[in-house]
Amino acid sequence: MNLQILPMIRYAVASGLHVTTSTNGHFLDLREKCEEIVHSGLQYLIFALDGADQETINRFRKGADFNTITRCISLLQETKKTLGSKTPVVELQFIVMKHNEHQKAQMRHLAGQLGLDVYCEKCVWIDGQNPDFKKLAQDFLPTNLVSSRYMRDENGSVAMKG
């Protein structure tokens, strides 16, 4: 994390900019840090959490701790409530991949339990120009591509839409 993130956010907000950032959530482990985030004027904060349990998030985000992330999200939500602030709007972003697509309902439920403002599912992105695209698509893309930027052709090969 950039140690100057909060002064940067305050400066951008004071300059009239709308500020959004994302995090894995590990740094919001103290109420004082959460208060600083709320007081900074940050308008939108995305928590990236790609699984509903430790085993699943370990597959893609090395070093991430499920309990720490959910505890930090709860602490930020409690802090916002205590301070009477509606900001930052907090989003839980779930990057859907082959290994976690079975947890979509659990993640939606978790977002509700945590009292989050927004829940967002996104399909993992793979660069279509990558020479290993087909292998990466096979390894990472979820089975259901309906609401993704990818499609399967009549041979079952994956390609970018459009």
Mean pLDDT: 90
Q: Which oligomeric form is depicted?
A: single chain
Largest sheet: 4 strands, parallel
Tell the overall outline: elongated
Structural class of the secondary elements?
alpha/beta
Describe this protein's structure:
The structure is a single chain. The chain is an alpha/beta fold. Helices cover 38% and strands 18% of the residues. The chain has six helices and six strands, in the order H-E-H-E-H-H-E-H-E-H-E-E. The strands form two sheets. The protein has a four-stranded parallel beta sheet, with helices on one face. A two-stranded antiparallel sheet has the order 5-6. Strand 5 and strand 6 form a beta hairpin. Helix 2 (31-40) crosses helix 4 (66-83). 22% of the residues are buried. The mean pLDDT is 90.
Secondary structure blueprint with pairings:
Elements (H helix, E strand, L loop, with lengths): L4 H10 L5 E4 L7 H10 L3 E5 L5 H5 L7 H18 L5 E8 L7 H10 L4 E6 L9 H8 L9 E3 L5 E3 L2
Parallel strand pairs: 1-2, 2-3, 3-4
Antiparallel strand pairs: 5-6
Name the descriptors:
162 residues; alpha/beta; two-stranded antiparallel ribbon; 38% helix; 18% strand; elongated
Could you give a short description of this structure?
The protein is an alpha/beta fold and 162 residues long.
